[in-house]
Design goal:
Layout: H1 11-38, H2 40-56, H3 66-82, H4 99-113
């Protein structure tokens, strides 16, 4: 979900981005960030990845937004799927987190730092 940089996202785009971040947080963020809080090595890796994501999104020049973070996470997952990656089907092993999982945890950490509550998960 990419929003052109010259346009402000509409309400539905903001809701969609918040929902995407909520799904990511439920699927890996909550458990992963809890694991990082007890594992200094993982926490350091997440912090390094968060700095790289912030830099990639121009976070030093403009504020990060849910839309930017959701779009970034979607792009990372899409690229990984093109190379055969499959999302975890059960809880991930955060002690052995790979680059992709750590990058997605960094997105969750940045989303948490925005101080906004994600939109509720869609009902099925």
């Amino acid at each position: 979900m990419r929003v052109p940089s010259n346009r402000a996202p509409g309400r539905s785009a903001v809701d969609s981005a918040s929902s995407a971040l909520a799904v990511l947080t439920v699927s890996i963020g909550t458990a992963g960030l809890a694991a990082a809080a007890t594992c200094p090595g993982l926490l350091a890796e997440v912090d390094q990845h968060a700095a790289a994501v912030r830099d990639a999104l121009g976070g030093d020049r403009r504020p990060l937004t849910p839309a930017a973070l959701a779009g970034y996470a979607e792009g990372v997952r899409d690229a990984a799927r093109e190379h055969g990656w499959q999302p975890p089907t059960r809880s991930a092993d955060f002690a052995e987190a790979d680059w992709l999982l750590t990058r997605l945890l960094a997105v969750c950490a940045l989303a948490r730092s925005l101080g906004t509550r994600p939109a509720p998960l869609p009902t099925l």
